[in-house]
Amino acid sequence: MALQEEMERQGNWLFRHRSFLPIIPLIIAFVLYVRMKIYPEIFILEETRYEIFYEMFAVLVSIAGLSIRLVTIGFTSKNTSGRNTTEGQVADTLNTTGIYSTVRHPLYLGNFLMWLGIALWTGNFWFIISFCLFYWVYYERIMFAEESFLRKKFGDRYLEWAEQTPAFFPKLKNYKNSQRTFNWKKVFRQEKNGLFALFLIFCLFNVTGEWLANGSDYNYFLMIMAVLTGLSYLFLRYLKKRTDLLSDAI
C-alpha cells in the first residue's frame, strides 16, 4: 500500500475513534500529576506562591481551546464540523468563512489547547513535549484523511481555499465574517459536556492529588465550577431529551 493510501487509512480509523483514544494520555497525565503531588520536589513551582497562577494558566489554556470549539460549532452548518464518529467523514458544504477563513482545522486546534492545559497541570516538562509530538502525529493523519475527502468532493474550490488558509496555526489577517448567524442551539446540543468535562477533570486531579499527598490545599474554585457546570450539563441534557427547545439546530 502506498504511503498516501496508508496515511489516509490510518487517518480514517483514528477519526472514527478520536473520542476514545485521547483517554490514554489523560490516564498518563493523571498518574504524573499524582506523582508530582506526592513528590513535590520534582516540580519547581510546587508548594510555592506561583503554583496557583500556573494552575489557573493551564485551566485558561483549556478554556481557550473550548472557546475555539464553541465558536467553530456555532457558526457552521449541519453535517460539517460535527462528531461524525460512526459514519466517517461528512461535509455537505465547505466552510471557508468565519474562523475557517483563518485556519483549516479550528476544531483540532481547540482540542489541542484543551488537552494542552491538562498536560501542563502535570508539571512534567517531558510529558508536555511528548504530548505535543503525540498530538501532532495523531491529528496529522486525521487531517490528512479529512483533506483528502474534501479535495475529492469539492475539487478546485477546496484547493483554492487551502492554498490561502493555514492548516493549524491561524492567519488572523485572512479573517472574513461568517455567512451564518451563531447557532446557540447547536452549541448546547453538541458541546454541552465540554465545559463540565474540563472542570471535572481538573477538579478530580486536584482532589486526588491532595488526598494522596495528605494535603489540604484544595482548589475550591475548581470544585464550585465542576458542580455548576455539572448541573448545567444535566439541565441541558434534560432539555434535549424531554423538550424541543434545543431542536432544529442547523
Protein structure class: mainly alpha
Amount of helix: 55-70%
State which percent range the strand residues make up: under 5%
The averaged pLDDT comes out at: 85
Description of the structure:
By secondary structure, the chain is mostly helical. The chain has a single domain, classed as Four Helix Bundle (Hemerythrin (Met), subunit A). It is 64% helix and 0% strand. Mean pLDDT is 85; it is low at 82-86. It contains nine helices and no strands. The longest helix has 30 residues, at 125-154. It is globular and about 60 Å long. Helix 2 runs parallel beside helix 8 (194-212).
Short description:
This protein has 250 residues and is mainly α.
Using brief descriptors, characterize the structure shown.
9 helices, Four Helix Bundle (Hemerythrin (Met), subunit A), mainly alpha, 0% strand, 250 residues
Topology:
Blueprint: H1 3-16, H2 23-38, H3 51-74, H4 106-121, H5 125-154, H6 156-164, H7 184-191, H8 194-212, H9 220-242
